[in-house]
Queue: 4 jobs
Job 1
Amino acid sequence: MTAVVGTRTEALQARWSAVMLGNYGLPPVALERGSGSTVWDVDGRAYLDLLAGIAVSSLGHAHPAIAEAVARQASTLVHTSNLAMHEPGIELAERLAAMVPAPARVFLCQDGATANEAALKIARKRGNLVGRHRVVSTVGGFHGRTAGALAVTGTPAKREPFEPLPGGVEFVAYGDVQALRDAVDASTAAVILEPVQGEGGVVLPPPGYLAEARALCDAAGALLVVDEVQSGIGRAGSWLMSVDQGVVPDVVTLAKGLGGGMAIGAVIATGEAAEVLAPGDHGTTFGGNPVACAAALAVIRTIESEHLLDHVVAVGERWSASFDALDHPLLAGQRGVGLWRALELAEPVAPAVEVAAREHGFLVNAVRPGSIRLAPPLVLTPDEADSFSAALPAILDAAGQ
Ligand SMILES: *Cc1c(COP(=O)(O)O)cnc(C)c1O
């Protein structure tokens, strides 16, 4: 008689639970490898990855361009610190600066939170120089988990256990131009907002919102910081959603998809905001290391050479049309831009939909109790997109039971 042996996933879950701090819920999957938009778990199950590690694995998994760039750079030079410069970092900064139609300067860091920390320090220092001390942010927004980024994150459940945080922050309703108009005045140092609230549930503001924010900041003399950590580098079918909408922010922050899975963040600053930081004002030991920069350059070059911005728009529209065509009592609607979409459920059963999708071989994310977020690799093929649309009725049936 053979003993009942648990799965490898269960064994890893037991080890994980015994050793990891309690800040995350127990992950339901243990991933081992990936290729394109498919990942395999340690028990050999395949999943179509429709979340891409939270909008990060922009070229999918094990993309040869990233694998080669990382391997080449890792066998050449991994780290310099900021006491030396390196060409991959300079070239990346040049590529990022060229994404805004204005003279720009770049700071490279590790991730989204550290990009927003740098952006807030720019806003704070410039605000102190000109006597402005308030920062306006939006309810439902997300800017990261470090103290400064958390202080401007408009989600009380994430923020309140860690107060007091850096102060002088005011939250206004997202997408509400009048609320912004009422809040932004001569005491405002900066406004920080996302072009689409990603963690908030892929929430799109009304058309023209960013442009209105730009105009209000210009009129009041405040900096506009646009957090494109999730929206940037192809997710929405553009390099930067702000620029695509004709808006030039004072500061743009980037991370998630930029490194294709390697940890990197960036700040792009224009105009006055590009001149605020002086030597000694800010820094990072690891940020923008040559390997991460080589990966980001591979991501940018591949998006260009494979015309992925157009591809993202086309596959996104195809998905959108297929969701609109689906008549299911649990599907109340859908929204999004490019390969960044949310399915709105008629009941708060998103966690059950996430589980049912996994059982059908799809990784999706219950971003809100009633919303499922889709943020697949930008290389998702039309056939892969269709396979999810085809499975969706059965997934919703299973979740509704
Ligand atoms: C994920 C995210 C962040 C935080 O990025 P980390 O890399 O997790 O620190 C900040 N802003 C937005 C809009 C995000 O989606």
Note: The chain has two domains: 8-62+307-400, 77-305.
Job 2
Amino acid sequence: MHNPVCPLNRFILDTPIVKTQVNGLQFHVKRDDLIHPELNGNKARKLQHYLNLNSPDITKVISCGGNQSNAMFAISVLARIKHWHFEYYLKKLPDQLSRHPVGNFKLACDNGMEYREVESFPELRSTQDTIAIEHGCSEPGAEIGIAILANEINQWVRAKSLTKCSIFLPSGTGTTAYYLQQHSQWPVYTTPCIGNADFLRKQWSLINSDTRTHPIIISAKKPVRFGQLDINHLNLWKSLQQSTHIEFDLLYDPQGWSALLENRSKLPGEVIYIHCGGLSGNTSMLDRYNHFLSKQHSGMNRIDNAM
Ligand SMILES: *Cc1c(COP(=O)(O)O)cnc(C)c1O
């Protein structure tokens, strides 16, 4: 049995932009985490054109990627809403996860996702009845929803009569930052969370080799490898929650806020931080942190006992 679907009329399209303070500095946060309880953030924006698609021939959606990916969960919600079958290719699952599904993986399975473990990802092709969605929803169609996001920000800035603004968001594939820059009246700044600055520049150059169309990259002094647990990131995540009363994601946002706070003076005018959602992944990340901390703790105890 699939879960009952949260109705489409629960979608908030023009999400609020709220003023907040972090470390005594003022920021605005675009609350795209509020788009919908399950399908939100930049994945909702990137998938928006499929939501509006009215094509009775389509019965199936296929994609590939990581076993805790936010994109995977977002596609599983889309498939449930559209009554499409969802098939997902992933690398061999860790035993622990296949025995005890958690996080985005469990949520996606509960939504009816059928997964196939493969050595390497097959080339996915759309057919008459099947939509193939790129790894991380990184595809040209994503531009449609991201353009709407850019226009919401453009309009908000005009309504507030602000004269200078910068937009910031953390990047994975860099798709959101790139299309946002194409439709935004303001410079878009980002930081790489997967790979380094060169990876992002290469991704963008595949779309357009003219680097003047690219967003601007800023980096934290000590970037953390994607998915790696880092106590400073955990502490920053907690302090963000305390100062803003907004829950951020644990995978991208700590890297994003680190880069932003360290480089705030480089960004002209008011700064708008795009909340890209992803909160569904926080339970499995917190599980990992708790496990990690309890292991560290027992390790310290062992040292104590030996002394
Ligand atoms: C997917 C994701 C990103 C990165 O988006 P890209 O378009 O791949 O750069 C950033 N933050 C969150 C929370 C995400 O889920």
Note: Strands lie at 17-22, 25-30, 60-64, 85-90, 114-117, 130-133, 165-171, 188-192, 216-217, 270-274.
Job 3
Amino acid sequence: MNFFSYKDGIYSAEDVPLDRLAEEVGTPFYCYSSATLERHYRIFSQALPADSLIAFSVKANGNLGVLKTLGRMGAGADVVSGGELKKARAAGIAADKIVFSGVGKTKEEMQLALAEGIFQFNVESEPELDALNAVALAMGKQAPVTLRINPDVDAKTHAKITTGTSETKFGIPFAHAREAYGTAAKLKGIAIVGIDVHIGSQITDLAPFEAAFRRVGELAQTLRADGHAITRLDLGGGLGVPYIEDNQPPPDPAAYGAMVTRVTKGLDCRLIFEPGRLIAANAGVLVTRVIYVKRGDAKTFLIVDAGMNDLIRPALYDSHHEIVPLREPVPGADRVTYDVVGPVCETSDLFAGARALPELKPGDLVAIQSAGAYGAVMASSYNARPPAAEVLVRGPEWAIVRARLTHEQLIAQDHIPDWLVG
Ligand SMILES: *Cc1c(COP(=O)(O)O)cnc(C)c1O
């Protein structure tokens, strides 16, 4: 459930009509709903053991306004770069609620994270373990570490967001886990604290999660028998969300929580979760204006002012996003089949193919739904297009939480070398 709906005939975020925001902010813009972020966080956290750490995956939506909203609810952060670590801190999230994931942490990022005193490093390889050990020893510190184990479970999701099979770059193969923990235990700069797993994203079935968590549970027992102090299990993120209202819904957080509780029963570990999409996807929309309606021989194109540089998911993952007109259609209104496309000079700049929508005219506004996760964070300025602005709504209030760059600001990022001046 989310807090976007028609009010007095206009699609609104909580109490704010989105056409008014379009007038004030210009299009395209992302709009996030605080009440939706809070609701999703609350429902997820209530489904899990009370002492769990819920570390919001900053890569899903790193806007400071969003991070601060969640931080105030008690969320920690799962970061995958030094930049995300600094953003989480800038949003007021305590270092001891931050976990650091990712396959390519640099020594500088490790230094930063150790200096901040983060909760744990999720280490993904033996070379990374050696590097972290060296950095920690040089700083006179010990790094709290889980090893990310690749359980070789197929999450049955889109190939580009599957991470838990032996074909992907993520984690340490399950069969090598004992050896890797043995190596880690000998390193004085490393303090083993637990096990980490993350098998992918937009997972809509509990079975792959359960298979992965069972393997982690068994491994915890084996590692304890080997003498390691396993006190934490980081179970990653990945719970899917409905992108289409009337589709088979993904498992609800309560069912996920019940499964987790059952599978981890008796292990006596603190649990850590890294949800991203579940919290943020349906808490955001991308509002865009129709520029032209172009009738081709085979198709009718709705050309809008947002492009793949603003929202790349359809091009990258073939993802489905529902599209709704901001002006509420009259019941039973005729539908027209459109290809909804952006202005970017790429054939893949397509938000929706053959989509039946009420008839739209140039100047009309539409909202592309489920755009709150992996939307603005992946934006670029391809085609010298300033990425969409971002707005956060809270009840009747709203604020621009990231302004659109002007063309001049965008151009000022480039520098002409001396030898070309004059
Ligand atoms: C991307 C990612 C997440 C978040 O995944 P969602 O599907 O958005 O919940 C969590 N943990 C790690 C390690 C990730 O890479």
Note: The chain has two domains: 4-31+281-411, 102-273.
Job 4
Amino acid sequence: MTKDPSFLADRAGLEYALEALLKAVDTTRIPVLPGTLPQNGIGEHAVLSALAPIVLDRAQPLGEAQSFAHMDPPTPWITWATSLWNAALNQNLLHPDLSPAATEIEARVIDWLAPLYGMDGGHMVPGSTIANLTALWAAREVAGVTKVITSQAAHLSVAKAAHMLGLEFKALDTNHYGRINPSTLGDDLSKSALVLTAGTTSAGAIDDLGLCGRAAWTHVDAAWAGPLQLSPEYAPLLAGIENADSVSISAHKWFFQPKSSGLILFSDNKKAESVISFGGAYLSTANVGVLGSHGAIAVPLLATLLAWGQNGLAQRIERAMGLADDLWRRLEAHPGVELFGRQESGVILWRPKNAGDVDTVLADLPAGAASVTRLGGKRWLRHVAANPNADIEALWLPISRALE
Ligand SMILES: *Cc1c(COP(=O)(O)O)cnc(C)c1O
């Protein structure tokens, strides 16, 4: 039987793909995607030529000097190389016998990271939406909780998870800084899962993690700010997280991973896994958690951690935090600016005092410099320090012009 070349690591195809990534693509040709499924293919090389101008040119660059708008970082090239391995090898951790190296690598990444958060294990997931669902599922089974208590600033995935799991959902008011107000928690939390947020999506606020341990189960949604724990300078912001029962982190945020990559960590992983595992049928080992097939997303994360070490990763996050500090100070010093609050975890919210029109300012800023969020009944311009390669002068110039 002849081998199908589409499944071979065709050197010419790989080289073509890399070249297309690297070279400035000819945009004079504007290819149109067919409206219906083509009956006959045009071949791999023709596809790369046709798709490169669409996919590469019509993507918002995330590592540019003025990219400072969302929680999506640029990714290091070591993750591109290892993701190419992943695509070519297509390992499935659902069947550890078919993915011996990938299974070991995920276990190793968890062994490296979990203790930093006071957790003893966990597994990788496609992001914190799934991590939050997994955590609350375990909370319901292990601690018998019937209710989820969080703040109004919690990510919508917490409400979604409560809905799916049939748990009552209560979102408490936040205080002036966007944090959960401890006095509103109530006394009896014996049937509640308390979800605290480390880095709220809108404002980057970090709830008081000293509250960990107050409820039957405490989950910390550290999707955004979790990686600060690797920095000696910023780890104190997360003090108390070690007393949580579970922690979510989105690795495709401040661990600089390609999507979709995240972690769910448990303080007692054995107990948690025992209630969220299903076995039998064609499986040689139990299927843990929400997903079925499970890719080798730990490989690019391990490669990044090996390449940079904890210090290298921390330095990049610290550089991004330094940029946020700088921008925050410039905005604070500007008489025409109203700030939402301090910047805690690299998220800055501000609005023009007079112009009043957030959208006009936004339209004056380069694409990717700011996003818009609504909080406390007001609309705010939002910057997020996901990109350590941003240039503060390049960002500040259009902002100061827009405020003139
Ligand atoms: C981004 C985010 C999520 C959702 O994570 P995904 O990785 O996008 O699924 C949950 N909680 C917070 C606080 C977030 O910032």
Note: The first strand starts at residue 121 and ends at 125.
